[in-house]
């Protein structure tokens, strides 16, 4: 806690309790102290900070009055809630609206040709009933082949075709969790993840991901021991929204911890193919290579090919595939045949299309990076090596206010709190690079105007650092 707070006094201010309360609030808004985090005892924190217990008690009183901290005699104090800044209004859609809320690029070149081939192949399928609960054999074989190329031995029987990666996660939740069960999930995370967990009547347990340092592996190991989650959800290949990728050493440690605690883990590889600085085949092996039968890997064609295909897959041990398949029948009876034929054709020789896709996305990333550096120089971010978005640190906690102002300027963005389990990240904003280059630059110009409108005149931040 003392390390997170750092130099919390404001320029030598003597308003100790107010400064400490403000520093804790900022940690909550930034998502570094998730809701439910238990705080140290007053005396313990006072000793660590080198201040009086009276000062700490006064700061906690302020936080309790604001509803950010709750306390109970004998149980201590914990983070209760981040301020709810409300939702961002969605403007009327039109040609002038630039949508930066979705990290979804247009279709990759080659989809139309694959549809023509699939249409001819469809003739042979029309004699059958068309229900393919596990997926077409040819498609499963080609997905398995791609996993083998990345260093993960896989057979077609270990693959289940789904209606997207998120659908695969929902099926895993249905098969492995029940009401009240805990699910370990990264913070920040893809917004639909905690919503899916709550829809399954389970409880998300946050595991913070630092935008610079990455995954807190000791913290995850402790959470696996203490919270005993029934399932975990991890996005270690160009994490959404930070763009970070866990290295092989980290995957080995994480896989061992999951296996040791016997915790099934859903590994989201939605953007694993969008390695913008190298070849995915030469990158770190999939997490499943280290977690073994405890890993349920979900993938998708949405980012690498096109979201309109609405196809994804699960890769897991055969008995796990059978278990998920058994639970699927109460939801749907399989994925569309024509789309599966299209994706099977695209994966016949996948590398030419994927290489072009990576080049296109890399160029768009570089355009967005340059534009933000030019028009919003006090925003800081780490240039991601893959994925589809920048995770930008704002000069002050204003993400939701900026989202409202941006909407009035014709730019739709997802504010930082959308990526939190229960509030926070008001100092962060995700900017996808999934639009044409000219649209990206225009969106940033509009954001700069919107940002100026929500900041006090002449506002500056002494903690700003050069964009890297």
Care to describe what's here?
This protein is an alpha/beta fold. Helices cover 40% and strands 13% of the residues. It has 16 helices and 14 strands. An eight-stranded mixed sheet has the order 4-11-10-9-8-5-6-7, sandwiched between helices. β5 (182-187), α8 (192-199) and β6 form a beta-alpha-beta unit. The radius of gyration is 23 Å and the shape is globular. The protein starts with a helix and ends in a 14-residue tail after the last helix. The relative contact order is 0.15. Residues 84-88 and 458-468 have low confidence and may be disordered.
The backbone outline, from C-alpha atoms, is globular
Class of secondary structure makeup: alpha/beta
Major beta sheet, specifics? 8 strands, mixed
Percent in strands: 5-15%
Order of helices and strands: HHHHEEEHHEHEHEEHEHEHEEHHHEHEEH
The total of beta strands comes to 14
The whole-angstrom Rg is 23 Å
With strands numbered from the N-terminus, the spatial order across the biggest sheet is 4-11-10-9-8-5-6-7
């Amino acid at each position: 806690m003392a390390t997170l707070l750092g130099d919390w006094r404001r320029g030598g201010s003597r308003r100790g309790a107010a400064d400490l309360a403000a520093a804790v609030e900022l940690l909550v808004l930034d998502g570094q102290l998730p809701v439910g985090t238990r705080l140290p005892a007053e005396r313990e924190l006072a000793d660590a900070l080198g201040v009086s217990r009276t000062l700490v008690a006064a700061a906690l009183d302020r936080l309790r009055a604001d509803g950010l901290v709750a306390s109970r005699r004998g149980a201590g104090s914990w983070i209760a809630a981040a301020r709810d800044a409300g939702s961002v209004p969605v403007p009327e859609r039109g040609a002038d609206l630039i949508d930066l809320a979705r990290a979804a690029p247009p279709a990759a070149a080659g989809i139309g040709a694959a549809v023509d081939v699939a249409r001819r192949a469809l003739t042979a399928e029309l004699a059958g009933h068309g229900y393919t609960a596990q997926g077409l054999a040819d498609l499963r074989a080609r997905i398995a082949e791609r996993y083998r190329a990345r260093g993960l031995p896989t057979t077609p029987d270990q693959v289940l075709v789904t209606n997207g990666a998120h659908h695969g996660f929902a099926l895993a939740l249905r098969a492995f969790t029940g009401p009240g069960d805990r699910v370990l999930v990264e913070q920040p995370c893809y917004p639909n993840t905690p919503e899916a967990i709550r829809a399954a009547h389970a409880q998300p347990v946050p595991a913070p991901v630092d935008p610079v340092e990455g995954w807190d592996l000791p913290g995850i190991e402790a959470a696996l021991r203490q919270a005993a989650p029934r399932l975990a959800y991890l996005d270690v290949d160009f994490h959404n929204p930070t763009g970070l990728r866990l290295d092989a050493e980290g995957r080995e440690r994480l896989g061992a911890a999951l296996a040791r605690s016997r915790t099934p883990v859903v590994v989201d590889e939605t953007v694993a193919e969008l390695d913008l600085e190298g070849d995915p085949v030469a990158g770190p092996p999939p997490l499943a290579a280290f977690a073994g039968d405890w890993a349920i890997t979900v993938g998708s064609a949405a980012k690498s090919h096109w979201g309109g295909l609405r196809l994804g897959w699960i890769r897991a041990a055969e008995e796990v595939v059978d278990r998920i398949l058994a639970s699927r029948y109460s939801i749907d009876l399989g994925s569309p045949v024509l789309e599966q034929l299209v994706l099977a054709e695209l994966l016949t020789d996948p590398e030419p299309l994927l290489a072009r896709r990576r080049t296109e996305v890399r160029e768009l990333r570089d355009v967005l990076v340059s534009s933000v550096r030019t028009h919003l120089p006090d925003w800081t971010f780490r240039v991601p090596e893959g994925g589809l978005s920048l995770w930008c640190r704002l000069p002050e906690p204003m993400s939701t206010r900026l989202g409202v102002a941006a909407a009035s300027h014709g730019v739709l963005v997802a504010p930082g709190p959308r990526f939190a389990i229960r509030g926070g990240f008001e100092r962060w904003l995700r900017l996808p690079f999934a639009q044409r280059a000219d649209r990206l630059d225009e969106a940033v110009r509009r954001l700069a105007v919107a940002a100026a409108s929500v900041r006090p005149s002449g506002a500056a931040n002494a903690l700003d650092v050069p964009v890297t």
